Amino acid sequence: MDRNHFYRDTWAEINLDKISSNIKSFKKHLPDQKIMAVVKANGYGHGAYQTAVEALESGAELLAVAMLDEALALRKQGISAPILVMNRIRPEYVSLAAENEISITIFQKDWLIEASKFLKETDKVLNIHLKLDTGMGRVGITEEEELHDVSLLIQNSSACEIEGVFTHFATADEWESELFETQRKRFINQLDLLKKWGITPKYVHSANSAAALRKFEGPFNLVRLGISMYGLSPSSEMKEKLPFTLEEAFSLHSQLIHVKKLMPGDTVSYGATYRAKEEEWIGTLPIGYADGWQRRLSPGADVLIRGERAPIIGRICMDQCMVKLPYKMDVGEKATLIGKQNDETIEMDEIASLAKTINYEIPCLISSRVPRVFVKKGRISENMNVILNF
Length: 390
Ligand code: PMH
Prior knowledge:
The protein is of the alpha/beta class. It contains twelve helices and 21 strands.
């Protein structure tokens, strides 16, 4: 392990080769669709920049993030591919977006009127994706009149252009969903209206991972891939019916920093909730809830040591937690909290289920103080340690 840029005994490993493989599988699955790699929230915790570069090298052509800051960070790091900010930006920042060739999402007439005051003659043309709400109920235009006004205002402006139109599904990860079909139809109707008004944007998109995995009919030419690009299934329902294997890119590791013998009756951690029944070997790992290893994972979660499961016992602390070892082990032994050791695997879904949440949330919550180690072409290519600005 190359530790040039971090000093702690806990790290996340991001296997970029798996991201590449997932993107390539999608290219085969949907040869006619362009891929927009969704790298918001630091690439769902996987590292936005590294994931973006890998996705672009593997066949994705565009990127999506949630906010302007995330897009600007990617530009600062030298990424020149098209980037879409999917959430609302403040009207006063439109020039900043235009200057940096960042496409933005709009879904309010008032916003557009306000933003037009801030666009300068000298700016590059601002690329806009219209967001339509077909049933997600989050953001997006719902009324025909507002859609008409917004699209014509943009069309008549020399400062901006409609580059795309999109919507977002609420239930694409459920096989039998009436709402999915309703949203698909509503979107097609709205596209017909736009066409009637002379608007045929370059990019028409609606599919997230779940929709892209299930394939569906419509006049769409781009898919927005998040969770599946990272190798995780959008839902357990879909996991059983995936059209190809998704390869998990994220794994989480630590090392024993202390090993001790407990005598019967000895207790472990805050609240003394764990009490030894017999003589037991206990190891301490330097990872805790401040790293995103949530308290609710104990009791329940295991770690892998020498390919065997060892349960986490007692309360998870802020920076440390304890595991029950099968026998005496040495300080320095590697423990895998998510991932594979020999023939045993702890999947992200296992941890998500123990934490009573979805797999999306787990890597997002692994905090920035956990360094990320990137593997590319089978070798460590880079470390990211936000604390030390690496
Ligand atoms: N498009 C939009 C507008 C999104 O909000 C998301 C994910 C995606 C595409 C990618 O979806 P996928 O990861 O299922 O492929 N957004 C979120 C969210 O807001 N909460 O969970 C996932």
